[in-house]
Amino acid sequence: MSFLLITHFHNDHNLTARLFLDAFPGLTIVAHTATRADMDVFGPGSVQRLAAGTAAIDRILATGRTLDGRALTADERVEVTAAKAGRGALVEELATVAYQRPTLTFD
């Protein structure tokens, strides 16, 4: 493998770049300059954003109210509870991932 093209900044793309580079040390990671800029904003802060989102979910469940103060419906409580499931494991997994920015960009 010679090149890895990152098409956009979503974590399923930008947080796997380091894994590919580790597996293929001569790899060139390519992205548009705007994509790299987005990756530089979103990639490194992923763990903190996920943890903050989990804290917000915890507050919603603890208070039984949405962030704007409205009482949760029973269906919403089920949805929010489901949204929380697995987030702790995801935070732990993301904490082990090293962010790798593209090594070559284009306009």
Describe the structure.
By secondary structure, the chain is mostly helical. The protein contains six helices and three strands. The radius of gyration is 18 Å and the shape is elongated. 11% of the residues are buried. The mean pLDDT is 91.
Features:
107 residues; mainly alpha; 3-stranded parallel β-sheet; 6 helices; 10% strand; elongated
Topology, number of strands: 3
Radius of gyration: 18 Å
Uncertain regions spanning at least 5 consecutive residues:
none
The major beta sheet can be summarized as:
3 strands, parallel
How big a fraction of the residues is strand?
5-15%
TL;DR of this structure?
The protein is mostly helical. The chain has six helices and three strands, in the order βααβααααβ.
Give the helices and strands, then pairings.
Elements: E1 3-5, H1 11-14, H2 17-23, E2 28-32, H3 33-42, H4 46-63, H5 74-84, H6 87-95, E3 104-106
Parallel strand pairs: 1-2, 2-3
